[in-house]
Amino acid sequence: MGRKLLTEHINVEGIETIEVYRQHGGYRAVEKALKTMTPDEVVDEVKKSGLRGRGGAGFPMGMKWSFLAKPEGVPRYLVCNADESEPGTFKDRYLMSKLPHLLIEGMIAGSYALGARTSYIYIRGELLYVLRILEKAIAEAYAAGFLGENILGSGYSLDLYVHPGAGAYICGEETALLESLEGKRGNPRNKPPFPAVQGLYARPTVVNNVESLAAVVPILNLGGDEYAKIGVGKSTGTKLFSACGHLNKPGIYEIELGLPVEEFIYSDEYCGGIWKGRALKAVVAGGSSVPILPKDLILKTAAGENRLMSYESLGDGGFVTGTMLGSGGFIAMDETTCIVKNTWNFSRFYHHESCGQCSPCREGTGWLEKVLHRLEHGHGSLHDIDLIVSVAKQIEGNTICPLGEAAAWPVAAAVRHFRDEFEWHVTHPQEATRPGAVYRGNLVLA
Amino acid sequence: MAPTTAPTKPQFSPAAQAEIQRIIARYPAERSKSALLPLLHIAQAEFGGWVSPEVQDLVAETLNIRPIEVYEVATFYTMYNLKPVGKHVLEICRTGPCMLRGSDELTAHLERITGAKVGETSPDGHFTLKEVECLAACGFAPVVQVREQYYESLDTPEAVDAMLNELRGQLHRPILPWEETGLPNSLKNN
User: Fold this and answer.
1) Are residues B132 and A167, on separate chains, in Cβ contact within 8 Å?
2) I need a labelling partner for B65 at 20 to 30 A (CA). Which of A216, A330, B5, B108 fits?
3) Cα A374 vs. chain centroid, distance in angstroms?
4) Amino acid B148: pLDDT
């Protein structure tokens, strides 16, 4: 059992209240930061921790903080990205609804470090019930003197608000999120300027994921150097993985980075193996956008090493034989899963969620959905398989925001690793479209 | 029951007006347009579960912005219903992880029981079926959201029946947009 830095007390009765949260060490990080540290010292601790952004991109958080422009007399903002919508990912919802004060504490410390006097939590609109939980906790934090004017007598003041979205995956992209927070359509902005220079209301802004901000609390409590000792290599600390799909025990698991993937899937301590006694076929390890890997490549790298749950190990082999850690949305598929159908489903998702600004994405995601639909339903041709790879390539790198890549990668990877299954849909359309049909080499089971 | 239609010139209730003022105060004075998304949520809950053009105009007036600024937002975000809906809108997640655990079967089952196809309202006006993308509850799939409530692990007819019975019991209860709701069952003991 690895260390739990975020969720250690998550099942304590009443932990969502400030009283119980404080009994378990809550708000010590805020007291330490505001009473004994300068803002730059807080940034330094986060830098030392090696924490990488937990939303999906994995960018070093301390570095992101240090990019923030600090012109005199201009307000700056910290915005929490709680627009969790990447298929397969459901960790932030869990963390916020069970431990609202952990996020609030991380945001106070982060806002202090960045010099923000007003901060927002942008939460996806579907999670209005979590918004109520957060607002209740924020009211408690105001009453206890951790928010508002002159916090803990430090002279530092902060207001914190929760802002709901209204159903749009694209608002998880940080500039689309800022547009949305300004009351507009969620169209990503051209960069530069980056939010660190011109973000919310054209002011310097940092946008961080829920889990990243929550991790600031254990980083300050332990010290950045101690935090960096946990994990493996440049994958420091602990990470929440959302396990779903065909697993015996789907759910949210906090692990020390570096755990072998095989142990995560099969150990009773974690996912408990594949459901219904079936065999594993494939895994999407970091949310729907990252390349799918067949069983052999998710358990071992191409070089035969054990694949670990870390940024480096999951990325080993690049996109030819590897994938990405992404958001930690871990989707397991058993041997009966149709890869063509699943790829079509993901393409439909990206088509639905494309904001429509950039032609390659707006048109390309529609093409992917349509061509995959006909392949899945036995009306495709062998040329269609090359066509979707070609369309994916033409989207990738040609859009304002990474939704283009997110739509392209799953298609390219599915064809790369499961081309024979796509071909089977073309050459054996009647078998492939029979309800319950399963492709296993050339064997069909009803 | 016919879906409620908004009156020609709708007005926010005093409770909603108070909530709106509280929300607008969160943003810099010259940036009150930021309150647009939250206000549309309040408007939708206040006026029968959808935002008619008249309701959108009211929101524009409240925030002192042009109506087009509201229309372009209301049509962009999937949570705003632009047509009348039944008493309960069942938002069924159809994305990959839910599909792997039976969301197609769940949708077909709900269509049979309610008599409504996806995108339609049942003849009795009780249920509107809507397919949505990932609701961030993939570990408890398949999932349906009804207003603020998540119904999870709907992989048996019994679980679906329990959800529908609970919703039928709420048919005549007024629902305020900012009422408190509980945690989904999966999170209560997780």
Assistant:
1) yes
2) B5
3) 31
4) 87
Is B188 near chain A, with CB under 8 Å? no
| CA nearest to A89, candidates B113, B72, B12, B141 | B141
CA distance A236 to A227: 7
SS3 content of chain A, % helix, strand, coil (to 5): 45, 15, 35
Beta bridge partners of residue A235, listed in sequence order: A232
Give the SS3 label for residue A237.
coil
At A330, the amino acid letter reads F
Determine the residue among A10, A85, A128 to mutate to test chain B binding: the one whose Cβ has the most chain B Cβ atoms within 10 Å: A128
For residue A11, give the chain B residue with the closest CA: B190
**pLDDT tens by residue, B92-137:** 999 999 999 999 999 999 999 999 999 999 999 999 999 999 999 9
Q: Give the count of beta carbons closer than 10 Å to the beta carbon of residue B189.
A: 7
* pLDDT (tens digit per residue) in A127-160: 999 999 999 999 999 999 999 999 999 999 999 9
Instruction: Give the nearest partner residue to B96 out of A161, A342, A353, using CB atoms.
Output: A342
Where are the alpha helices (H) located in B25-95, listed in sequence order?
A: 36-46, 53-63, 67-74
- ipTM field: 0.94
DSSP string, A345-371: HHHHHHHHH--S-SHHHHHHHHHHHHH
Closest by CA to A108, choosing from A214, A201, A259, A257, is: A214
Burial of A9 (0-12, 13-18, 19+ CB in 10 A): middle
pLDDT tens-digit series, residues A3-15: 999 999 999 999 9
Mind listing the pLDDT tens digit for each residue in A381-422? 999 999 999 999 999 999 999 999 999 999 999 999 999 999
Using the Cβ of A205 and the Cβ atoms of chain B, whether some distance falls under 8 Å is answered with no
CA dist A394 → A321, A355, A389 (Å): 21, 17, 9
Banded pLDDT at A117 (limits 50, 70, 90): very high
B188 has a pLDDT exceeding 60? no
Residues of A in contact with B149 (CB under 8 A): 129
Amino acid B2: pLDDT: 54
